[in-house]
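quick one before i forget lol
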Amino acid sequence: MKALQFSVSVPKFLALKALGAVDPRPYYRGPLATVKLKEIPEPKLPAPDWVRIRTRMTGFCASDLNLILLKESPSASPFTSFPCVLGHETCGEVAELGPETEGLEVGDRVVLAPPLHCRARGIEPQCPACDAGLLANCQNLAEGNLSAGMHIGLCRDTGAGFSPAFVAHPSQLFKLPDQMPYKIAVLTEPFSVGLQAVFINLPRAGEEVLVIGGGVIGGMVINAIRALGIDCRLTVADPSPFAAGIAGKLGADRVVTDGDLMQAAVGFTGARRYKPELGPDMLMGGFARIYDTVGTSGTLNTATRCLASGGTISLIGIHDRLKLDPTPLWLKQQTIKGLLGCGIVDYQGRRRHVFEIALELANSGKARMGSLVTHEFKLEDYAGMIAVNLDKQRYKALKTVVSFG
């Protein structure tokens, strides 16, 4: 089968860093490209309870782009295995059952929750993280009956969504509602990330809340807050008029496009602005909660200054290295929470996987998903898809997907 395969070596890494400083195309075109369309065999079922999925649609994630452009931190390299097929935002149909599979039938339409946690790896007893429901933060990401891999899409044994077929454990698969189109189902993983961010940093009614970044994940945080019926005042910051317009349609009360979050915090929250002898201003007061979906030194440092005393920042986006002035954390006793993927949470009186909640909210119409997929590509057009994601403003792109028909 044809698959979009990622692989990198130290010499290639060094060469691309030099070439890519001028032009990003060598990262995905030409002999040094980190991703190539290759003919590979379909992966084998790793255990008798696994299943094979025929891919129908797969979303292209910002983390896929960062990986291709070698912007991810090498600190996570022990928890990946190359060469691997990319594509973790994916849905399709069950094509083959292992002899010990339970709960699924051939032909079932399913969406993938990608983390390769203890249960998927055949590890018992589960690690403390999995016991706590933190499935994406499993402590055994390089152990068990699989090669290293945080999730399907970073493990060489499983295949992934940018190929016609891949394998998965039943605990990673959730059946789609009967009438849900794949164009909505493919958004379940990013929507679940937005939901997880909100569940672990839950706004209260009337609070002033800021989302930095109006892209897919920023939009999903807005979607999650509104779908859960949380009546907070929601501000979104993004320089793109296109992204700002989408944020408003999803439920943002205000949109900041000029980049002056300090002044926005003063105007919207009543924060007081103070000028130090050197360096950027400091605010007292500000937003109660901030969701930073960009994760650069600039956005995180600004977020801590715009965050009220005792407030919490959810750091969803992440870049390789951050330089942070910790003074606001100390001065205002703030908390920064990292976020990777999703897991199991308390919801409406019981423990539930966030994917189940996401599918219910999307199917009920409480989450606004219909206009978020803006571009569809064939797998053979992957280079064009990458080019669109490198200039989303020009192409008016939000979520781009590969469709397998």
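fyi The CA atoms of residues 263 and 346 lie 37 Å apart.
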